[in-house]
Design brief:
By secondary structure, the protein is α/β, with parallel strands linked by helices. It has helices at residues 61-68, 99-103, 117-127, 143-151, 165-172, 176-192, 209-221, 238-249, 267-276, 298-308, 310-316, 322-332, 354-362, 390-400, 406-420, 427-448; strands at 42-45, 83-84, 107-110, 134-140, 156-162, 196-202, 226-231, 255-260, 281-284, 350-351, 380-381. The structure holds acetyl coenzyme *A, 2-oxoglutaric acid and zinc ion (ZN).
Length: 449
């Protein structure tokens, strides 16, 4: 972003916007209940598994390790003409070796070691990095894959098998009874190796409910650490998710992991709904990369959850690392961070319309649900358009140290609008109009003196 780097008179961060205001009567301020886990969820970060299924992804060993270790990356957002209202605070990093790890995710999930010899080697390498997060790998629910997974030294094995009729018929060809038999054998083996085990039913939302619950009950009795529910084709709605997870919560005693694809744009909402219904773990990937258009993005989930559960999220996760982690992954898979990405999109904290700018200048909570400072970021005000108001120009004049009456600021605002009606303006254009108007005022004063 361009704009002045000088600190300006303006609102300082008010700490945490997730304070939601205090309407005298609103049923929406606290939707917590005894079953909800919005205040205690865990993240399974799957950029190195689901993310490797993204069309552009090629993570060589060095890239994988770099994604585990902190590294500097080039920023790749585009500049827009704005000015900064608070001093930019650069993200700071400690000495932990993994951005995801440093971010505070609980688990990192890796591609199946059966996929290729290099995948096997990489899995072993990452298991040896000594990360704070537990390392999982994701394999088909069969004994050969599970043995290979355990051989790598992972902390946990995520078993998966499709349970919908589509996948039973066209993917692996197994009946529900066969799935249950194999699952129980594989689970027993993984547990016997002292390794965590999760059993997941791929395409859960298009599977028969009785089949699903029967399977989950059986694997729960067999002692899995988690069962997994996956919206593999991204067709579920928050209500469908709530119903299924709420039902499942009453059937199994183990943790419940959930995995949402974003084909219909519901991945974040579905994750939130799952937590409200009693799910314990959410699968994410950085920028949401994954098969087709991907899954619940880590950053977007953080945006959602920092509003829902500010204390838990700010204490548990190192939010200031998010931008670097996203830039690292964007660079590795050669995409730009989308302009409207929650938190880190280049205009995520840019305010433009005059009505908004005035209120933001008075109190940032007026038009922001999230304080950018929580993520080590800052807000910007755009002052270069036909929809700019005089209050924003007043703030800019103050920032530039130019003294003017309100009427004079209104007059120069009209000039800026005149010019902005003709062509797009940069901040330098706006500043020039302000400066030349101010010089004119000074000349008048001198002539009169
Ligand atoms: C929804 C998801 O994202 S699930 C996770 C997807 N992840 C992956 O696919 C990991 C990357 N995959 C790979 O590297 C390869 O597909 C491998 C190594 C797993 C298998 O490769 P191949 O042996 O060449 O088989 P291919 O990929 O063509 O077909 C998949 C095979 O797995 C079988 N299969 C599919 N799902 C399962 C399952 N959950 N459990 C057991 N077997 C399964 C299929 O029946 C098929 O078997 P077949 O060889 O008898 O036809
Ligand atoms: O293992 C799981 O729970 C999810 C697998 C997967 O990627 C999917 O079903 O989309
Ligand atoms: Zn998936």
């Amino acid at each position: 972003m361009c704009g002045t780097d000088a600190p300006v008179a303006g609102p300082v961060s008010n700490g945490s916007h997730p304070v939601q205001g205090t309407p005298s009567s609103s049923p929406y301020q606290n939707v917590n209940d005894f079953i909800s886990n919005v205040n205690r969820f865990k993240i399974i970060e799957s950029t190195l598994r689901e993310g490797e299924q993204f069309a552009n992804a090629f993570f060589d060993t060095a890239t994988k390790v770099r994604m585990q270790r902190k590294s500097s990356v080039r920023p790749n957002h585009l500049p827009i003409p704005t000015f900064r209202l608070v001093t930019l605070r650069r993200p700071r990093f400690g000495t932990a070796c993994d951005p995801s790890d440093e971010f505070g995710v609980d688990y990192i999930e890796l591609t199946s070691p059966v996929s290729s010899p290099q995948s096997f080697e990489d899995c072993k390498t990452i298991c040896g990095l000594g990360l704070k997060a537990k390392i999982l790998t994701h394999v088909r629910c069969n004994m050969e894959d599970a043995k290979k997974a355990v051989e790598c030294g992972v902390d946990g094995v995520d078993l998966v098998i499709g349970t919908s009729s589509f996948l039973r018929e066209y993917s692996h060809g197994k009946s529900i009874q066969m799935i249950e038999k194999i699952a129980l054998e594989v689970i027993e083996y993984v547990k016997s190796q002292g390794v965590e085990v999760r059993f997941s039913s791929e395409d859960s939302f298009r599977s028969d409910l009785v089949d699903l619950l029967t399977l989950y009950k059986a694997v729960d009795n067999a002692g899995v650490n988690r069962v997994g529910v996956a919206d593999t084709v991204g067709g579920a709605t928050p209500r469908m998710v709530y119903d299924l997870i709420r039902t499942l919560r009453g059937v199994v005693g183990c943790d419940i992991e959930t995995h949402f694809h974003d084909d219909t744009g519901c991945a974040v909402a579905n994750a939130h709904s799952a937590l409200e219904a009693g799910a314990t773990h959410i699968d994410t990937s950085v920028l949401g990369i994954g098969e087709r258009n991907g899954i619940t993005p880590l950053g977007a989930l953080m945006a959602r959850m920092v509003v829902t559960a500010p204390q838990y999220v700010t204490k548990k996760y190192n939010l200031k690392v998010l931008k670097e982690v996203e830039e690292l992954v964007a660079s590795a898979v050669q995409v730009n961070i989308p302009f409207n990405n929650p938190i880190t999109g280049f205009c995520a904290f840019t305010h433009k319309a005059g009505i908004h700018a005035k209120a933001i200048l008075a109190n940032p909570s007026t038009y922001e649900i999230i304080d950018p400072a929580l993520f080590g970021l800052t807000r910007y005000i755009s002052i270069n358009s036909r929809i700019t108001g005089w209050n924003a120009i007043r703030a800019r004049c103050d920032q530039l140290g130019l003294t003017m009456t309100d009427d004079q600021v209104k007059e120069v605002t009209a000039k800026i609008k005149q010019m902005a009606d003709i062509r797009p303006l940069a901040i330098d254009d706006t500043d020039s109009i302000i400066h030349s108007y101010h010089m004119g005022l000074q000349k008048n004063v001198e002539q009169k003196a």
